[in-house]
Write the structure tokens for this entry.
Amino acid sequence: MQLIPTEDEVVALLRETGALRSGHFQYPNGLHSDMYLQVAIAMQHYETAKLLSVALSRKLRAHPELRAIIPELSIVAPATGGLPVAYGVCEALRARKVYWAERAEDGGPQRFRPYLQPEKGEKVLLVDDILRSGKKLTELRSLIEARGAEVVALAVIIYQPNPETPSFGDLPFYYLTKLDAMYFWDSSDIAAKARISGPAEKVWI
């Protein structure tokens, strides 16, 4: 495998570890899909986590402006699920530090723990295991910028957009592979049922 694996190699690795599955799945919001991905299943294996994190870090190093600020770069995840990627990328880059946002138990907005939050003027790289709806990363970006820090790029292992995924504009965006899943709202959709067999398995992200 190359220093930066091909998209097909990444997909094969996800399937081998059981992180990527095909079938008929229904998400909590009612959306149906022919694909289910839980990157954490792959990241629980040290060698796999290291391979994916180092590969992502090499894509980031290829950006000259990012490479120049690595010593002052902070890696921030939108939730604890993105921490294996955040720490792996930070170690590979030799970046400054890692921290993350959390959501209150009552489902309120994201927040940082006391004394574990952005500094004014801080350079921040947003990192997560997957970009699907983009809601957490969009909220995190706003939270960071409201505190006077600067988000300089976004990096994820997997980009799996759905019909509601927003654009991040001119923000540099890096990922190892893009997965184009089929999404539909009605389980009785004739075209969808022609490609998906069996009842829906309810899953959560």
About this structure: Residues 46-61 form the longest helix (16 residues). The first strand starts at residue 20 and ends at 26. The chain is about 30% helix and 25% strand.
